[in-house]
Design brief:
The structure holds three protein chains of three kinds.
Chain A lengths: L13 H6 L14 E7 L5 E7 L1 H4 L4 E6 L22 E2 L5 E7 L2 H10 L1 E6 L6 H5 L25 E9 L2 H7 L2 E9 L11 E6 L5 E5 L4 H11 L7 E5 L14 H12 L3 E4 L2 H6 L6 E10 L5 E13 L6 H10 L8 E10 L13 H19 L3 H8 L18 H12 L9 E12 L4 E7 L5 E5 L8 H14 L7 E4 L7 E2 L7 H28 L6 E4 L2 E4 L2 E7 H7 L4 E6 L13 E2 L7 E15 L4 E12 L6 H20 L28 E7 L16 H4 L1 H13 L5 E2 L3 H10 L1
Parallel strand pairs in A: 1-12, 8-29, 10-11, 14-15, 18-19, 27-28
Antiparallel strand pairs in A: 1-5, 2-4, 2-6, 3-5, 7-15, 7-25, 8-13, 9-10, 9-12, 13-14, 16-26, 17-18, 17-20, 17-24, 21-22, 22-23, 26-27
Helix pairs in contact in A: 9-10, 10-18, 13-14, 14-15, 16-18
Chain B lengths: L1 E7 L2 E7 L5 H8 L18 E4 L2 E4 L12 E3 L13 H8 L9 H14 L5 H7 L11 H16 L18
Parallel strand pairs in B: 1-5
Antiparallel strand pairs in B: 1-2, 3-4, 3-5
Helix pairs in contact in B: 2-5
Chain C lengths: L1 E3 L4 H11 L3 E4 L5 H7 L6 E4 L9 E4 L2 E5 L4 H6 L1 H6 L1 H8 L4 H4 L4 H7 L5 H7 L4 E6 L5 E4 H4 E2 L2 E2 L5 E9 L4 E7 L10 E9 L5 E9 L6 E2 L1 H7 L6 H15 L10 H21 L1
Parallel strand pairs in C: 1-3, 2-3
Antiparallel strand pairs in C: 4-5, 5-10, 6-7, 6-10, 8-9, 11-12, 12-13, 13-14
The chains are: A alpha+beta, B alpha+beta, C alpha+beta.
Chain lengths: 753, 174, 281
Amino acid sequence: MAAIIGTRRIRPDAADKATGRTVYTADVALEGALAGVVVRSPHAFARVVKVDVARAQALPGVRAVAHAGNTPSKALDFGIKDQYLFPRPYARYVGEPVAAVAADTEAQARAAAAAIQVEYEVLAPVLDARAALKPDAPLVHPDWEHYEKTAGRVLRRNVCGYNRVRRGDVDAAFKSADRVVESEFHFSPGMPGYLEPRAAAARPEPDGGLTLWCGSQSPYSNRDELAAFFDLVPERVRFVNQFVGGAFGGKILMAAEWFAAALALQSGKPVRVLWSRHEDGLHIFPRHGGYAKFASAVKSDGTLLAMRASFVYDTGAYIGYGGGTALISSMLASAPYRIPNLDIEATLVYTNKHIAGPVRAPGGPQANFAKESHLEEVARALGMDSLEFRLKNAWNESDVSPTGQKLEGVTIRETLGRAAKAIGWGEPLPPNHGRGIACTWWFSSCAESKARVEIRADGSVLVASGNAEVGTGSAASALPMIAADALGIDPQKITLLLADTASATYDSGVGGSGSTFSAGLAVRAAAKSAREQLLARAEDALEARADDIELRDGRASVRGAPEHGVSFEQLAKAAGGSITGSGEAESISDPEHDETLTETHGFASWLAPSYTTTAAEVEVDPETGRVAVRKITTVQDVGFAVNPAGAIGQIEGGAVQGLGFALTEELVYDGHGDLMPDFKDYLLPTSVDAPAIEAILLTSKSGAGPFGMKGVGEPPVTTPAGAIANAIRDAVGVAPHETPMTPERVWRALQAK
Amino acid sequence: MQPVTLYVNGDKHEVVVEPLQPLLGTLRDALGLTGTKEGCSTGYCGACTVLVDGRPVNACLFPTVDADRREVTTIEGLAADDGALHPVQTAFIEHFGLQCGFCTPGMIVSAAALLAENPAPNAEAIRQALSGNLCRCTGYQSIVESVLAAASELHEQGRAGEPPGRRAAIRTRA
Amino acid sequence: MQYFEPNFVDEALVLLDRFSPGARVLAGGTLLGPQLRREPHDAATIINIKRIPELSDVALEGEHLKIGGVVTARALAEHPLVRKHAPLLAQAAASLGARQLRNVATLGGNLCSGHPAADLTAALLALDARCLVANIHEGPRDVPLPDFLRPHSHALAQGELLTGVTIPLVTAGAAYVKMQTRRAFEMALVAVAVRFAVNESGTIWNARIALAGAAPVPVRAHRAEASVTDKAPSPECFKAAARRAADEDARPYSDHRASAEYRRHLVLVLTERALAEAELL
């Protein structure tokens, strides 16, 4: 049987998606559903004095009104208990939900929402991370001293996260250096940019439970959180996850789900909550904006001696899942380079803006844009070619990470070399054209995941996984391939059941470059178990030994005598109706690192690290500052690609997301903390902005995931901005220190030269 | 409330709508054709692209009343009566032109309209023609490859320049 | 909400007169729909003017090209008469939005939007367009386009209808140069529309330069025009004109998309480029 794993395969979900048959949450028909509408604070910072719902409740068609007065008062717990479902009593960002209404029709619900009278005491907001650090800044959380938090969390006034990596003697190294170069950077916040706005539908069940339809990255943890909050028995809360129209880290925390649930429980009826793009924007979990300062000490031969780096990130009104950005940034700042003396710190700051979240590669584009731009400036200060400079300092096998982790399977040099070659490094270019390069390392994730593989009574194969399909194909494409590989069948023939919490599976959620990794390990284990059971039954049926039996196209037969065989259907029957294999992702311990090198760091050890280099070619119009990206080449060490088309898709998509971060995407806030999330103002790259992209996969098979794979989804978005910035530098001598590098910012950088 | 006669994918429908009801809501809610998606409600993403008399428009902005007695083609109407997929659909499947799939119905409809008008576009012409359809997942490269492959296949089948979708057998016009 | 589909201009005028001030004209609908979804609109009367045949006409009338208010951007980009007699307008129309928007956005809607960066408006300014306004009481009038424009509004009185524009026929080279943050599907940061002819003695006459995104409404760059008139076309001549356009004609504003300073700079750069491009035709 021809190999399945490692081949470019058409996705099983592609036909439905290409014909409009795929069901997303807004497409779910729910009989008798009420329309749910959310009332939101118009102020960036206010104390909610009173929420008067009497008028609203009396309006025709109104079946439920939820607010702080009639919902649980528990704090939401993301490590710091700083947030509630509705304000108690502070509303801390423009758009923060204050109440929600369900009515028979949407028009009635909107009329009722307009009739809810909220009295606000408007307060002065703090809208910038550096301003929030000043000793006299208003406190986003005036009661911070009384907040419960898990051990190790940093919380002081407007600071809600801090970590530091220190090694060697940075002061001495700076004193002894031949050159010291300093650079400062600013990143604008951004949106995940998924095309499908958030939506959810909830239906109360007769057993006191709840069924929820939504498009989440992590339906299991959502289910647990929702059940705990509303005091429901978790097993009676069922999340039926639909196909997700893109997520990119923005659909991990619940949003519409909360209000669908609250209103369904209160009204006793099904409730649908559908958001427009604009409303989705008011509830957005953006990519962190912030500042970075870098200083490097270097010898004149190009050897890096020491680095200081400091990140200040604007995490918005609540901690949510914002912590990863700061942790990851401090691990990226000096990598993948050999720098013996380090002092890297990252601070998370509260402001009265939207809750920044773990958008695809949290901290990755930001830290890499800053670091690779800075190192480019170091190379230029020395008169060194930037590729040569990077190769001189890049990690070798058995070097150590910033936190002392021994590195194995280090392929950074290969990615640098191949990317440079592919972009034509060193070949002549016309005026105002330039080439740039940027590289990074990244982690893989192995989280809890459980799967089931069932050979059913009719011989068909069902694969059930808790993993959600958010677009990458990790779930819809790679998982059937992994199961098919073990069972010798066509992956297109597999019935896939994903992310339904009633399906006796589990998954920690899509994210952190861990889906195919974790869910793949679980499915592989489940398929292996199913295979073993099939072979055991076949041994009896065929009176042969398992070693002599092969599985092919739904039959077990003796090798070399295919007519002497038995179908899966017959084997299932012999087993009493079905054969089920269960499996889970084996837990893989994190590599060791040196804990003395870190301070309040929770992520200092990276599993199965991958290496990625992006090279870019640009043309700059120096009169207008406009940058046209002509080509992007990304070389990524993926360990092994279960479906190369999936890995290439991640690289190509990530290249354009990275380009958006670099050149066009800016989530604009005004002086009142109001934002402009509509696609008229938030500029995603169009097909004309996107260049030709060359994706090169390195398969070193050294990863710890199934078949030697490493995490794939995030690295591609972390390197394009640095490569584009450096290409601009190559073309016209300077580049902005701020993202996005809009034409105006490029023009200003040229003016300042 | 206005009575409107819609010919959608060759089928005739009589509906009654508010004057400014966008075509998108009518298709999805009144006719149950949920293949066309709502991405932004303001005409800035193209996820809702449908064809009216063969021309791509944003259904989220297009008043239903303006589609009265005109041919509307949605993603559901591209396949042939016997279920055979339109070559653009097949190409997107075979050339990995989709990931999450949310932009895909609008993208495929837009691409089908392009090829009817320009049966042999190059990559740049494809990118220009699809500039009103945003995609966040693919980076567009595989979309361009899919459209090039579809153009080739349509040519092979002798269908270059053929208008996409099913037309009503009889339409009444005032 | 009441709704009407008049078939004649007079019918539309009667309705506008009767139902003003709550009457709203529906052309392409790209702006009206979202607007009314944002604001309460129970009292509005919608008058759909797309069933009035003469509003879709493009025709030569003597020494003028007359274009109805409901002609779409796509039609402007492709119509043989527009391409021949007002290529500047065709070029501007082809740059508007994306295909889906060009199929519904109308000439009248663009003019009435009063957007400072409206593409069709800028081109029409450089074409000496006059607005044709119908009024039930006073009869039709025509208004020079500059007098019609208002920031984010228009100069129509209650009960009036913009039925189209007329453009005098002129043989000239023309160019529309547009700058945006990304490379497609976005309103201009700044755009410059240029038209000029060169007479037998080799000097420029009939020069028109219009700026979008450089003032509260699209404006003519009169001083820049004066600067090139009666001069032989040359890079120095164009540079000088661009300098006057930037320093004297532009009244740029700052917003979240770009600063006034940068907009002024774009006027300088794009005016020079548009003049050079127009010369080549």
